[in-house]
Amino acid sequence: MRAAIATGTNFQGANLVQADLSQADLTDANLSGADLNQAQFQRTKLSRVNLKQVDLRMADLSEAVLTDAIMPDNSARI
Fold first, then answer.
1. Distance (Å, rounded) from C-alpha 17 to C-alpha 65?
2. Tens digit of pLDDT for each residue in 47-64?
3. Rounded to whole angstroms, how far apart are CA atoms 64 and 74?
4. Which of 3, 32, 40, 75 could covalently link to 23 via disulfide, CB atoms 3.0 to 4.6 Å apart?
């Protein structure tokens, strides 16, 4: 999904383990309950993204832009 525009996309509960989301625009995307363990997010725009109960262990968020992300009760696993 490199350099893709996926604004407003619903990835709720998706298995995106080791997915390459580098340089994507995920503005307003719903990643609630998604497994993003070891996913790549280099230079990805993550504005107003729902990260409730998301597994981001070992994910590469280097140079990602994370603005106004929704992480209620610190439920994301980073």
1. 20
2. 999 988 888 889 999 999
3. 19
4. 3
